[in-house]
Amino acid sequence: MHAEVQNYFSRANINHLADMVLLRKKILAALPFAEEGFQYGFPVYSLSGEPAAGFASREKGLMFYLMDPGIVAPYHEDLATRITGKTCIILKENSDTPKSIILDCIDRMLADVRTKHLS
Fold first, then answer.
1. Less Cβ around it within 10 Å: N or C end of the chain?
2. Phi then psi dihedrals of residue 47, to 5 deg
3. Which candidate, 96, 102, 29, 50, places its Cα nearest to that of 72?
4. 30 is in which domain, residue-wise?
5. Domain total in the chain
């Protein structure tokens, strides 16, 4: 684990820690060739030197970032109010979107990133 990422985990909100570990595992499994680093104040996973995905522990919840708005856009209907901005998904279920749906969409988005990067 990148030293700054390890430090980030050690300071993380305890309520976000399990989901942070889960997101890191999902990213590394889907993008095993990604380089783990620390940019923008949170863990970022880059492909060919370009940020592709990341996550951040924030006051309002754990945020998952997929840096390609073109990949996030098709999931707006499934994720409803869980998408904040063009590339940010808040990993917090509500009455509209169960966490299982959010995680499934993240898996599919990461697969889309992998496919796009390999083509």
1. C
2. -120, 125
3. 102
4. 3-118
5. 1
